[in-house]
Amino acid sequence: MSLLEVRNLDVFFGARQVVKDVSFSLEAGEKLALVGESGSGKTVTAQSILRLVEGARLAGQINFAGRDVLTMNTPQLRALRGGEVAMIFQEPMSALNPVMSIGAQIMEVLQLHKGLTRSEARAGAIAALERVGVPEAARRIEQFPHQLSGGQRQRAMIAMALACEPKLLIADEPTTALDVSIRLQILELLDQLRAETGMAILIITHDLNLVRRFADRVAVMERGVLVEQGRRETVMEAPQHPYTQRLLASRPQRDVGAVGAGCVLSARELCVDYPVPRPGLSGLFRRNQFRAVDRAQLELAPGETLGIIGESGSGKTSLALALLDLLPSTGEIRIKGEPWRADDAATRRALRRTVQVVFQDPLSSLSPRLSIARIVGEGLEIHEPGLSAEARRERVAQALLDVGLSEDGATAALLERYPHEFSGGQRQRIAIARALVLRPDIVVLDEPTSALDVTIQQQVLQLLGALQRKYGLAYVLVTHDIDVIRAMAHRVIVMKDSQMVESGPLDEILHHAQNPYTRKLIAASLR
Amino acid sequence: MAPGIASPQTPARRAWRRFRAHRIGFYSLWIFLALFALSLCAEVISNDKPLLARYEGHWYLPIFQNLPETTFGGDFETPTDFLDPFIQQQFAKPGNLAFYPPNRYHYSTINYFAPVPNPAPPGATNLLGTDDRGRDLFARLLYGFRVSVLFALAVTGVCAAFGIFYGALQGYLAGWTDILMERFVEIWNAMPTLYMLIIFSALFSPSVWLLIGLLALFGWMGIAAYVRAEFLRNRTLDYVRAARALGQRNHIIIWRHILPNSLTPVVTLIPFEMAASIAALTSLDFLGLGVPPGTPSLGELLNQGKEGLDAWWISLFTFGVLATTLLLLILIGDALRDALDPRKQIAEVAP
After folding, report:
1. CB under 8 Å to B127, separation ≥6 — which residues?
2. Which of A8, A89, A93, B48 is deepest in the core (most CB within 10 A)?
3. Residue B350 predicted with pLDDT over 50
């Protein structure tokens, strides 16, 4: 008999059915990956196993170790949750209680489920932290979540989940919020703990690299339906369902044009400093400088993509914002030979149109109260004030057509709509249209695809590549995703702790990296 | 893919749709608007002069004309008292006509010809009875309601305008300007408001405008705090950055990008501010520090009710009007808050 058996599970929110007739099973010690894009119902399915979904109506059968979860009463459920089935979440910062120390939170679980005394629970908490590889566990248990790094926080979460030796661990996107080099460590930790305790792991993810590396079996979900499941090798090598095939083909494909001659953007000795309060009382009056970017150098040719890769906090976004002159910086930036920080405001404003930007989150980068026509047309109002309203609409419609917002070319109907009426991928296309309508020479792309689903990611990257070839655009591409770099970049800059640790042509960086950090980054990309 | 709704959905229209789905708040808004509209026509509903009169072949509009008693066969040049039995006899003669409003009393009318001593209980002559000076209670309540609501609108309008301005300045400029302005708000907040109001009312001769000014002076900080917080948040969002990357000018960024996205808490606060203003006016009137004597006022009626507990109808009906008004406003505010809740907006967008 399987450890977990889900049969014909339906989940309804009111009249809306979000999970349709899902069946799968999980043996003890097995690693099953539940794969799907956002909105596919994978998280709801996993949370239904513990009946954690509020306001949902469940139908079907969920058997855990021979008992029916759907008919359990509250005390039985409580014993199941955290006791036999544990769960870890994507964002450890919000899943841990910020006002309780790590130790107290692990002890709480132990006292609740195992009935240990305080001192026993304390010893148990230290042991649990040691087991997940947190150094100096005895000291760490006094610390609060904000004092730990992202990776340690996730380890603490895992320690908490595993404190009661569950038979099944449900891991909901456990590595998505972490930096790439830490992702691998967490996965290795999970695998090692599974080998030690013999628990089963149900991992929920959208990341196919992770599946390839980690899972024994794969179940693929699309819009609430489980479309395909089977052994990892079978599903990955010979997918049957068209959706799985599309998902697997969604790895960004390299398709870049030739680099032009000349130099549209150059930066020399570029530094960005943030004021940070000094510790203690003197912080009220004096501030220290935190250097986010330290003496960066770069050059960009027309039609070239310069990839800037680094982990969070490495200063890559600060560098991008400084290139846009949205952050105060020192050093020299020249745009087509002209210094960015020209003295008179008119020249500066005129230069603005040559450098445009696309941000990561398409939801927050479009003003929610303006129509698409006004959002995309705003730059034209500023830089081409002579344009008539008719001509401006024409240009906006052309830009929307360029970014492929509608297949049939009927963009006129879209102009009066508002951002919330579009999906994430469409919103990102609108943001690209806003940047393109001014015919810039340089576009700064700040993590342009990380907020998007994998299949959409690929489409947006293809679009960016096509636009680059069509208009000879130069891109500064900021990302943490080496796959995106592989697909798009001509040259790469690797950043770590505010420094440019390495830079050079893509092939050289990928295959002959000099710097150990670069090599680690490439190795950790779960390929 | 783009949704199949024919007309584009402005954010305001979406909020209105959610507001409408909130039945209690939606009906409260209509009831409140109907009551307010009625009270704006108070002169036609409750007045001691006929709307239209015909006397000896001539037509008169007594509401708009000041007619001496001699016009209708009286002895004196004084303004006509249409409640005078003699005048009523004159109109009862064949050929003469008078169309009266539904309630035959103005708020200032003293019925010298009442059959019972003042305050008179509810009855055929005075629907809700009279106050201690023989003025019709229904008329006083109707006009008093109008004064309260207009007063609340004025106070809220001034507060909102100044609060938005102050908060926007704080939030957009940030840094030292923000810190200094915030300290000023804290000092201002610490002032004993009621005490100040009592002093000012004693210093100056009472008038409605003075009260509006005083209450607005101490009422704008809440709105400013919300607008400041919204500005501080919105100015760092990517769409503001994108506008700056386009080279957009500062004042246009504030006006077009930040302000419309920062007004949600203000709209939500407005009904609550109005309720607070009405309550403040009522309490000042109750203490005798409010509107000038003679102005119809709910607080003054409550005070009368307290003085003469035997005249139960004064307390009861005044309390009824006040409680209904405040309840309606709060229900509207509740529905508005739900309609504008950003989390619900996101929930609606998500697939």
Report:
1. B103, B136, B137, B138
2. B48
3. no
Min Cα–Cα distance to chain B from A375, Å: 9
Looking at the fold, whether B248 and B170 belong to one and the same domain comes out as yes
Q: How many residue pairs from chains A and B have C-beta atoms closer than 8 A?
A: 90
Give the CB-side neighbour count of residue A383, counting CA atoms within 13 A.
27
| B238 → chain A, closest CA residue | A365
Q: The tokens 């003496």 sit on which residue? A: A295
8 A C-beta contact, residue B60 and residue B67: yes
CB–CB of B345 and A420 under 8 A? yes
- Report pLDDT for B282: 92
Instruction: List the Cα angle B319/B323/B327 in 5-degree steps.
Output: 175
Closest residue in chain A to residue B259, using alpha carbons only = A369
Chain B partners within 8 Å of A370 (Cβ): 256-257
DSSP secondary structure code for residue B79 in this structure? B
Strands across the sheet with A287-300, in order?
A287-300, A265-277, A330-335, A338-339
pLDDT at residue B148, rounded to an integer: 92
pLDDT tens column, B40-89: 988 888 888 888 888 888 888 888 878 888 888 778 888 888 888 888 88
Q: Which helix (H) or strand (E) holds B28?
A: helix B23-40
Give yes or no for a contact between A86 and A166, defined as CB atoms under 8 angstroms apart: yes
Residues of B in contact with A431 (CB under 8 A): 242
Asked if A348 and B241 come within 8 Å (Cβ–Cβ), the reply is no
**Residues sharing a CB contact under 8 Å with residue B219, sequence separation 6 or more, in sequence order:** B155, B159, B273, B276, B277
Q: What is the CATH number of the domain that holds B229?
A: 1.10.3720.10
pLDDT digits 0-9 by tens, B275-317: 999 998 998 888 888 888 888 889 888 988 888 888 888 889 9
ipTM score of complex: 0.73
| CA A144 – CA A137 distance, rounded (Å) | 13
Range of the domain at B94: 48-100
CB contact under 8 A, A39 and B351: yes
**Nearest CB partner across the interface for B9, out of A324, A406, A421:** A421
SS3 B50: coil
Whether B318 and B250 map to the same domain: the answer is yes
Say what percent of chain B tops pLDDT 70. 95
Q: What residues form DSSP beta bridges with A152?
A: none
Same domain, B55 and B175: no
> What's the CA angle centered on B315, arms B312 and B320, to 5 degrees?
120
CB contact burial B169-198 (16+ within 10 A = b; e otherwise): bbbbeeeeebeebeeebeeeeeeebeeebe
Say if B349 falls within a structural domain. Answer: no
B185 and B82 share one domain: no
Task: Give residues with Cβ within 8 angstroms of A168, minimum separation 6.
Answer: A3, A4, A26, A64, A84, A85, A86, A199, A200, A201, A202
With beta carbons under 8 A apart, name residues in chain A contacting B249: 382
Buried b (16+ CB within 10 A) or exposed e, B307-334: eeeebebbbebbeebbeebbebbbbbbb
Residue B29 has pLDDT above 90, yes or no: yes
Q: Tokens representing A20?
A: 């349709």
Same domain flag for B142 and B250: yes
The CATH number of A265-276+289-363+437-526, from 3.20.20.70, 3.20.20.450, 3.40.50.300, 3.30.40.10, is 3.40.50.300
Q: Are residues B80 and B194 in the same domain?
A: no
Pairing of strands A305-310, A474-479: parallel
What tokens appear for B210 in the block?
């003075």
Examine residue B150 and state whether it is found in any structural domain, yes or no.
Answer: yes
User: Are residues B211 and B71 part of one domain?
Assistant: no
Low-confidence ranges of chain A (pLDDT < 70): 1, 280-285, 342, 406-411, 525-527
**Domain total for chain B?**
2
* CATH code of the domain made up of A4-248: 3.40.50.300
